[in-house]
Amino acid sequence: MTIAAVKSIFIGVGGSLILAVFCSTFIAMDKILFILPVFIAFNGAMTGYRLVEVLKTRIMNIPLFSFVLGVGTGALTFVAVNFALNFVGPFMGNTVFLNIYDLFIYMAVSGITSYLGAKLAVRYFNL
């Protein structure tokens, strides 16, 4: 069960980062940070859906587990984006930093949409 959960988390984080890198080719970095919660929301829903798709009936409390997994995905996305901004930003001349409010927004958005994605998967698979 833990391997499937870790895979779901990395799918969510990786998807958010891929979308952000793709959009950075034609949108400024400060604008990407403004729309990043939309990317996180989509990938949070994918995280919850993927979790239920793989584990189906092996999860005791699907809503709680998917919400916690989504919160973890939001936190890891915050860490990855913050690391990328601090590592690559000085070379590109960007001085954009994330703060604690961004962390809470990422965690809340990802947690709620992961819950909703898991709820959609439960309905789809008739669990």
Feature tags:
127 residues
Short recap of the structure:
The chain is mainly α. It is built from 4 helices and no strands.
Fold and architecture overview:
The protein has 127 residues and is mainly alpha-helical. The protein is 83% helix and 0% strand. The protein contains four helices and no strands. Helix 1 runs antiparallel to helix 2. The longest helix is centred in the middle third of the chain and has 31 residues. It is elongated, with a radius of gyration of 15 Å. It starts with a helix and ends with a helix. The mean pLDDT is 85.
Mean pLDDT: 85
Radius of gyration: 15 Å
Which sheet architecture does the biggest sheet show?
none
Q: Name the helicity range.
A: over 70%
**Count of helix runs:** 4
Globally, the shape reads: elongated
Q: Give the uncertain stretches in residue-range form.
A: none
- Strand/helix succession: HHHH
Give the DSSP E fraction (strand runs of 2 or more residues).
Answer: under 5%
N- and C-termini, Cα separation: 17 Å
Secondary structure: number of strands: 0
- The structure class reads mainly alpha
How would you summarize the topology of this molecule?
Elements: H1 2-23, H2 29-55, H3 62-92, H4 100-125
Helix pairs in contact: 1-2, 1-3, 2-3, 2-4, 3-4
